[in-house]
Amino acid sequence: SQQGEEDPQALSIQEGENATMNCSYKTSINNLQWYRQNSGRGLVHLILIRSNEREKHSGRLRVTLDTSKKSSSLLITASRAADTASYFCATAIPKSRRALTFGSGTRLQVQP
Amino acid sequence: SQTIHQWPATLVQPVGSPLSLECTVEGTSNPNLYWYRQAAGRGLQLLFYSVGIGQISSEVPQNLSASRPQDRQFILSSKKLLLSDSGFYLCAWSVRRGALPSSYNELFFGPGTRLTVL
Question: Does residue B32 contact residue B97 with C-beta atoms inside 8 Å?
Fold first, then answer.
């Protein structure tokens, strides 16, 4: 079974609005990562948050981590049409030499 | 800078035919290499990973195999494709463990191969 599960599965918003995606995981982690995938393309790393961090910012991205609830959220502020993509959270697979397990993703559609 | 290549970009194969997908990495040495498969609209499933030449670990039993004949080359193969092998295959690399703290486990993905088995 997959370690991370995102919700919602799909999200449609207007340009300029904020988009929030959530991720839950099952086991203890050293860090949690968020990736973006444009349709039919490979994944691109967005941001990594360590287990001892509660919040991290990168440009219009804000990630939070609550290890007590085993959950994380990704907030994209002032969304743009170019933010349309699928977003995945990922955590390390134990004893797998840095391999990551990914959730099923949130498909974000930003309407211009 | 590092780059990762996959080919072919798309492939349509009949059931029972063989498969060979290739992935190469440039600009880095001794990378960890990974093969993932993504079903339509779904998350990624780890298929294989490799920490060195000839060293392959399989995550799920299946109709596929992987090989690493060179440090920066990773090949995904099948002797006889099944309909269920259809999907989007992604190769990725990461820095070898020990080169950086274990918290730096970012994966760098290739552009993917879309495989359709008919």
Answer: yes
Question: Is residue B83 classed as helix, strand or coil in its secondary structure?
Answer: helix
Q: CA B81, B84, B88, B90 torsion: positive or negative?
A: negative
Amino acid (1-letter code) at residue A82: A
Among A6, A35, A39, A97, most B C-beta atoms within 10 A, so best to mutate, is A97
Q: Tell me how far apart the terminal alpha carbons of chain A are, to the nearest angstrom.
A: 36
Identity of residue A94: P
User: Where does residue A81 fall: left (phi above 0), alpha (psi -120 to 50 degrees), or beta otherwise?
Assistant: alpha
Give the separation between CA B49 and CA A97, rounded to whole angstroms. 8
Q: At B85, is the secondary structure helix, strand, or coil? A: helix
Q: Do A43 and B88 touch (CB under 8 A)?
A: no
pLDDT tens for residues B35-86?
999 988 778 999 999 999 999 998 876 789 999 999 999 999 999 999 999 9
Q: Cα–chain-centroid distance for residue A112?
A: 22
The predicted-structure confidence for B4-20, as pLDDT tens digits, reads as follows: 999 999 999 999 999 99
The span from the CA of A90 to the CA of A102, in Å, is 4
C-alpha–C-alpha distance, residues A47 and A65, integer Å: 12
How far apart are alpha carbons B94 and B31 in whole angstroms? 6
